[in-house]
Design goal:
heterodimer; A: alpha+beta; 6-stranded mixed β-barrel; two-stranded antiparallel ribbon; 11 helices; 13 strands; about 20% strand; B: alpha/beta; Rossmann fold; 4-stranded antiparallel β-sheet; 7 helices; 10 strands; globular; binds adenosine-5'-triphosphate; binds magnesium ion
């Protein structure tokens, strides 16, 4: 009975109700759409990072600490035999890392020099450009970094490094290629050269800092090397995305606030506008509990109708977003959207959708119940003193 | 006729007025029997509505005893008094108080829903009640689509549909013109005579007086006169 009455009340209440329902449906929609983009971004960014940088996981030489540039000179050791086998099978990839200095256009800049096998095809880095002709040392670097340095292909820059004996040496290296990537961890402040050349330059024959392995499930204990799994390696990225998500979630907190305000407003207004209606129901013998149920249910029905209304325009729109993605392209890096290729494709999981619906429903139940309880506790005579809604006059 | 249908003993009603108290009813003593058609008259502010609300258990007295249909009204919990109203009392208001989103039929049906009466029975009772007030042709209209007189007739139908023992009507004719007022009073009188339902009005409408069987005059919260009229 209560359900039928509530439905009748809502459907009979006209434009204002539908406006509230629409606003509420918008909050479902915005939450799901935004979250979908963030989940999509996260997937996209993780995938790109695996493709370009971390593959299935990494072994770090135990002294290597990317957050402490002073240890960078110590973090290298002879590649262990187990991993050498993987490398020759193209199942792993050795990278040597060392601090160095470059002098592009006469300015000085400290960078991270990375050595990688030119013939590798484990990661997307276009390392074939590192194959050296003649006596030249070829290098590659990311386009954003190249822009920062204002260098272009075929430019020569002076590279200065310190070898294993602490002796400084310098050479002109040639920029053989500038690659474009969304993965900041292979681009920021880094220059890539051929691994054998770098080993020779530094005197670290056969040595490496990081061994990237292809297989996610390969992790053996190797003394002197620490295995870092994908969870660890993606942690920074995920944290960054989470921070952005929280930042942007301000927007849907606002949306939800608006929607809740609309419901709350309807319910609060009920105290004044529909007081007499409730007084009349009390006079006719409706109990407080029933009245609370009726008016709370009305609020909840708003939320349920909003799901239906939201589905009508939301599902096609969300589908559309999923199909075309959000074109970000060149701006991605400006926005700090690491790992996003030209377009961002949202992903909507059922957890996201169900979670959002439950979240909005609970919020609505609370804001519906609280004011209603207040109304129902009025004395019938006080409630009856209120005005009847316009329609009745 | 059953005596002690309603007993009011030494009833006093005070309303808080800032730091003071305003006394709306002072020491009222009244008895009503079943089947009465009684008007409570008196100038504005004399306490008519207050008395009616106390009888209807919408409000409670400050002092004294009110026994309605054997229930000591002040002792009832809010849900018990709701049930008492639902089963025994119909209300008619000056401002009709129809539920705006419901049709005429649904408005009259509402008290029956509260009583959990089944659908067939409901249709029968609602039709019967609307026949009493002559509104069978407006069943699907909404309150906003019918006249004030018609609204009040719907309200009467709603009050009598559950065949209550008691109908309380607060100024039922105050918003109606003379024709409609007479029409409505005739209807209520007819119901009273044919079903034995007890009617108690609060009114200061002179037109009402000639229909009454008993007239109670309130003045400043006290019973000034209690008389049988029109051969009642
Ligand atoms: N909730 C209240 N708080 C304070 N005073 C009240 C309250 N309700 C009624 N009164 C006062 O009690 C007195 C009696 O009120 P009541 O409504 O019973 O009068 P009435 O005889 O019905 O008048 P009317 O003919 O204008 O309807 C009035 O002076 C009124 O101002
Ligand atoms: Mg009054």
């Amino acid at each position: 009975m209560i359900f039928k009455l509530a439905l009748k009340n809502i459907l009979g209440a006209g434009l204002r109700t539908w406006l509230n329902i629409f606003i509420l449906s918008l909050s479902y929609f915005v939450i799901i759409a935004l979250q979908g983009f963030f989940v999509g971004w996260q997937e996209d960014a993780s995938r790109e990072m695996k493709k370009w940088d971390i593959a299935g996981g990494q072994y770090w030489q135990e002294d290597y600490d990317p957050y402490d540039p002073f240890t960078l000179e110590e973090g290298h050791a002879v590649i262990p035999d187990e991993l050498k086998k993987l490398i020759s099978n193209e199942e792993a990839l050795a990278i040597l890392i060392s601090p160095a200095t470059i002098y592009p256009k006469g300015r000085m800049r400290n960078i991270v020099l990375k050595g990688i096998a030119p013939e590798q095809n484990l990661v997307e880095l276009p390392t074939t450009y590192l194959e050296n002709q003649d006596e030249e040392i070829n290098c590659i670097l990311g386009s954003s970094f190249a822009e920062k340095l204002s260098v272009s292909i075929d430019d020569y820059i002076v590279l200065r490094w310190r070898d294993k004996n602490g002796a400084y040496d310098a050479r002109d290296i040639r920029i053989a290629h500038i690659f474009s990537t969304t993965v900041l961890t292979v681009e920021n402040n880094q220059i890539w050269i051929s691994l054998p050349i770098m080993q020779e330059m530094l005197g670290y024959l056969d040595q490496a800092t990081i061994i990237t392995v292809k297989d996610e499930n390969y992790h053996q204990e190797i003394t002197g090397w620490e295995y870092k799994n994908l969870d660890f390696l993606l942690k920074d990225l995920n944290n960054m995305i989470k921070a952005k998500t929280i930042g942007s979630s301000m927007m849907y907190v606002l949306m939800l606030f608006l929607a809740v305000l609309a419901i709350f407003d309807t319910q609060i207004l009920s105290i004044f506008r529909r007081r007499k209606e409730m007084g009349t129901m009390m006079a006719m013998g409706m109990t407080r509990v029933k009245i609370i149920q009726l008016f709370t249910l009305e609020g909840v029905l708003h939320a349920i109708l909003a799901i239906l209304v939201g589905a009508v325009y939301g599902i096609p729109l969300l589908r559309y977003f999923k199909k075309v993605g959000m074109q970000i392209g060149a701006n991605a890096k400006d926005w700090g959207l690491s790992g996003v290729t030209d377009a961002l494709y949202p992903i909507y999981g059922w957890k996201l959708v169900v979670g959002t619906i439950i979240f909005v429903l609970i919020t609505v139940i609370i804001v519906s119940y609280l004011p209603t309880r207040k109304i129902a506790n009025l004395k019938p005579t006080d409630a009856l003193r209120g005005k009847m809604t316009k329609k009745d006059e | 006729m059953k005596e002690n249908f309603i007993e009011i003993k030494h009833v006093k009603k005070e309303y808080p007025m800032g730091t003071n108290k305003f006394v709306a009813l002072k020491d009222i003593d009244l008895n009503f029997s079943e089947g009465e058609f009684t008007g409570i008259v008196g100038p504005s502010g004399s306490g008519k509505t207050t008395l009616l609300n106390i009888i209807g258990s919408l409000d409670s007295q400050s002092e004294g005893e009110v026994i309605v249909l054997g229930y000591e009204v002040a002792d009832l919990s809010s849900s018990k008094s709701a049930r008492m109203r639902s089963e025994n009392i119909g209300f008619i208001f000056q401002t009709y108080n129809l539920l705006p989103v419901y049709t005429v039929f649904e408005n009259v049906e509402f008290p029956l829903l509260l009583l959990r009466i089944n659908k067939n029975e409901r249709i029968k009772l609602v039709t019967e009640a609307l026949k009493w007030v002559g509104l069978l042709d407006k069943i699907k209209s909404r309150p906003s689509q019918i006249s004030g007189g018609e609204c009040q007739r719907v309200a009467i139908a709603r009050a009598i549909v559950k065949k209550p023992k008691l109908v309380l009507a607060d100024e039922p004719t105050a918003n109606l013109d003379a024709d409609n007022s007479h029409n409505i009073l005739k209807t209520m009188k007819k119901i009273n005579e044919e079903t034995g339902t007890t009617f108690i009005f609060a009114t200061h409408d002179a037109k009402v007086i000639k229909y009454l069987k008993r007239k109670i005059t309130l003045l400043d919260g006290s019973v000034a006169k209690d008389e049988l009229v029109n051969g009642g």
